[in-house]
Amino acid sequence: MTKEITTTGTSEMPSLTKPETLAAFSVQLKQFIVTQNLYTPIQGKNYVNVEGWQFAGASMGLVPIVDKCERLDRADEIAYQAEVTVWNGERIVSRGMAICSNKENKKRNFDEYAIQSMAQTRAMGKAYRLLLGFLMKMAGYEATPIEEMPQDEKIYEQKKSEGTGTFCSVCGEEGFKKKDGGDCCPNWKKHKEDNVKFSMLENKEQANFAQSLDDIPTIRIDDFSVTEEDYAK
């Protein structure tokens, strides 16, 4: 089945110099990102893939150019630094620099070409972010491309895909497997900060019912059982 994107009815190209065009375009941008599944949820926040940022830039006549991508002189390490400029006509309107290394978590077994490519991808996302971060916020997303997020912050999404079949009594999110094999809510950090105790329920209906109760007590957590190590494989 072909995915279709409905336009907002705005015929004028969105422009940074015409704020009135950006509000309408942010709706179209969100629709494109959702339809093409170009975002990743992490800790209750949504981060857009670089392809989503490219769509935003292309729709505004912005063109990214890789100016430099060089291997860094580091012993026993494959590391590249890339620099990307974003052009609007004949003017440079943004610039981004980024590094990728095989010393990073999840990059240790990458081939050299993949390290080089990721450095360019990150630099492109950074250049777009410096210019269009506010636009992504208007569309309801975080102003940081997913490629810039630390690898350990992405682990929860990988574990979530395992599908525990249990749901948080507070936020309703499906759980992930902890290192010890138990189930836990992906938003446990927020619940801990809010001093709210949660439990993992066997089905979504139970979680929705729990959320609908107005008299659920708020309980301080003095001995919270989840730690950062629970995110490690």
Core attributes:
single chain; 233 residues; alpha+beta; Enolase-like, domain 1; 2 domains; three-stranded antiparallel sheet; two-stranded antiparallel ribbon; 6 helices; flat; disordered N terminus; disordered C terminus
Distance between the termini: 36 Å
Number of contiguous helices? 6
CATH structural fold name of the largest domain: Enolase-like, domain 1
Name of the CATH class of the largest domain = Alpha Beta
Describe this structure in a few short sentences:
It contains six helices and nine strands, in the order H-E-E-H-E-E-E-H-H-E-E-E-H-E-H.
Describe this structure in words.
By secondary structure, the chain is an alpha+beta fold. It folds into two domains: 19-149, Enolase-like, domain 1 (2-Layer Sandwich), CATH 3.30.390; 158-231, no CATH class. Helices cover 34% and strands 20% of the residues. The chain is built from six helices and nine strands, in the order αββαβββααβββαβα. The protein has helices at 19-35, 50-59, 112-138, 151-160, 188-193, 204-212, and strands at residues 39-42, 45-48, 62-71, 79-88, 91-101, 167-168, 176-177, 183-184, 200-201. Strands 3-4-5 form a three-stranded antiparallel sheet. A two-stranded antiparallel ribbon has the order 1-2. α2 crosses α3. The radius of gyration is 21 Å and the shape is flat. The two termini are 36 Å apart. 27% of the residues are buried. The model is unreliable at 1-10 and 213-233 (pLDDT under 50).
